[in-house]
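Page 42, continued from yesterday. The earlier attempt failed because a stray header line got pasted into the input along with the sequence. Redoing it now with the clean sequence only.
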Amino acid sequence: MNNQPPAVINLNFPKPPLKLIGAVLVAVAVLIILWTTYYTVAAESEGVVLRFGKFLKTVEPGLHFKLPLGIDEVSVLPTRRQLKLEFGFYTSGYTNPYQPTQQQVEEKSMVTGDLNAALVEWVVQYRIDDPKEFLFDVRNPDQTLRDLSEAAMREVIGDRTVDEVITIGRQDIEISALTRMQELAKRYKLGVRVDQVQLKNVNPPAEVQASFNEVNKAQQDRENAINIANGDYNEAVPKAKGQADQTIRGAEGYRFKRVNEAEGDVASFNAMLGQYVKAPEITRTRLYLETMGDVLPSVSSKIIIDDSMKQLLPILPLSAKPVEAK
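This time it went through. Structure tokens are written below.
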């Protein structure tokens, strides 16, 4: 047997000098201070600087410096881009940090003014208008905005019938809801400006979907028939008015023609009457000759009658074509 004593290993390392430890601690402290003295604000955002938790100022996008070690704190808000809240649904990959919700079915289930159910999905587009109000005047402004948007939409939907909500009243609902949301956001000092409200899918519950589809089809057929009738009316009425105007103008033209002719005949007769008064025999002879000149050319057989002649002498047909010599 080997009776040699076991080897003893000395694990006592030499202690580092205190100066080295102090230098490392100082270097770490300097790095922490330097790391907390600057910050960057993105291009579409503004930075809100707090000093000891109190509002100090807002800063523009870019690189900035602040007091380190938590003396100054910075909250960066996306004030220069439009944000979007979706109600009753959500789009995957959304960029709005205030969008998440797990109550899609509850949000879109509403009751209309005539006590019918409707599933309403809509979008609210807004901007952070006042960063100070957004951070300090209201607790949870993002959730407050969602709540007041839902309340305003339910109020507007509750004042309308289900037919207006699903078919013809969408634009009016959007305008009314936008006005109401803007009023509430200003009253509560949320620091946001609501720019647009847009209805997406508006449907009845699945249990009555088929009945509503039939009603919508009937309404569309009715509108189509009205549009066709209006088209026929717009085509027939102007045409009839044009024909009536043309007839009236023709009658007025004929009236002016007849009046002018009658006035001309009267003037001619008056002139002739004046000449007749001056020389009755000459005027009578002239009228006789003019009348004979108009009548005789249309008479086929012409006979001259003279008191001194014992027999009738027919006038040769001088207007006939001469007989060609053979």
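Notes: The first strand starts at residue 38 and ends at 41.
Reminder to self: strip header lines before submitting.
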